[in-house]
Amino acid sequence: MNFTTKISIQKHNHSITYDSKIMLLGSCFAESMGKKFDYFKFQNTTNPFGIIFNPISLAKIIERSAQKEYFTEDDIFFHNDLWQCYEVHSELSHPDKAIFLHSLNELINSTHTQLNDLTHLIITLGTSWVYRNIETNAIVANCHKVPQKQFTKELLSINQIEESLKSIISLIQEVNPNCNFIFTVSPVRHIKNGFVENTLSKSHLITALHKTITHHPLSITYFPSYEIMMDELRDYRFYAEDMLHPSQTAIDYIWEQFSDFAFSADTKILLKEVEGIQKRMAHKSFQPQSEGHKLFKQKLASDCQSLQAKFPFMQFEL
User: Fold this and answer.
1) Which residue, of 7, 44, 74, 98, has the fewest CB within 10 Å?
2) Membrane-spanning regions, if any (predicted)?
3) Is residue 95 part of a domain?
C-alpha cells in the first residue's frame, strides 16, 4: 500500500563524482544541500556571496565574478554601524570600509577561479519577488534592514527570469564551456508575501526554468526539490517549527533523491564509506581510556588515511 505519490526523476546525464568541482548558489535551501556536500566531503563551495534568493541578483553576482568586475566605493554604503552592499548578504558586512571592499573583491577573484574549474553548478531559485532601490532603480539581493520606504516591491515576469537564466548560462559558458548546470526551485515557502503570492512566485520560476531548459537540453537539468516537498512530503510533519522550511527529515529525504539522480554508482559506494567514518567520528565513548576504544580510534585513523590517500582534498578532524 502506498501512502504517497512518488515523483519520477530521470537520471542526470553528467553524474557527480568525487572528482567533480561543485558550486551551489541561491536560496537558503542551497545552504542545506551545501551542508550535505560538506558532510560527505565533496569538493564544493556554497554561496560565497551569501544567500541570494532572486535570479536577477544571482545573474549580477555571477557576471561580476565571471568578468572580474570589482566592487568600488560606489557599490557600498554605511548603515547600522556596518559597511553594506546591496548585491551580497548581510553576513559579509563589516565595520571597516577598506577591509569590506578588499574581502568582496577577494571573493570575486576566488569565485572567478572556481567558475573556470567547475564541473557542476547547482542553482536553487527562491522567489520571483524582488525589491528595487528607488534611488538607483536597481534590484537588490538584500535590503540590509534599510527602511522599506526606500524600495518598491515587484514580481519578476517569466520573461525577466528567463533572461536572467540565459545570462547566467552564457556567462558561465564563456569562461567554462564544460560546466553542467542543475537548477532547482527551493521548497521553502515564502509566505511573507502571502500564500497566493508565494504560489505565483514559484510558478514564474518553474515556468521560466523549463522554457530555458528547452534551449539547453544537453547541459541543463532540472531537479524537482519543490515538487518532492509539495507532493511526496505533503504533510506538516516534514516542516520545521516555523512551518515554512523543510525539516531535517525532509532535507535528508530530498538528499537521498538527489543522490539517486546525480551520483554515479561508484560515488554512492564512496558516499557510504564517508558516512561510516563521519558516524564513527561522532561516537562518544564512555570509556575513552579503554583498550577497545584505542583500537577503535586506530582503525578509524587508518580508514581516514586510506580515503585521504585516494582523495587528498578530504580532511577529517580526528
Assistant:
1) 74
2) none
3) yes
The verdict on residue 93 lying in a domain is yes
What is the mean pLDDT of the segment spanning 56-84? 98
pLDDT digits (tens, 9 = 90+) for 34-50: 999 999 999 999 999 99
DSSP structure string for the chain: ---SPPPP-PPPSS-B-TT-EEEEEESHHHHHHHHHHHHTT-EEEE-TT----SHHHHHHHHHHHHHT----GGG-EEETTEEE-TTS-GGG-BS-HHHHHHHHHHHHHHHHHHHHH-SEEEEEE--SEEEEETTT--EES--TT--GGGEEEEEPPHHHHHHHHHHHHHHHHHH-TT-EEEEEE-----GGG-HHHHHHHHHHHHHHHHHHHTT-TTTEEE--HHHIIIIIT-SGGGB-TTSSSBPHHHHHHHHHHHHHHHB-HHHHHHHHHHHHHHHHHT---S-TTSHHHHHHHHHHHHHHHHHHHH-TT-----
Range of the domain at 51: 21-226
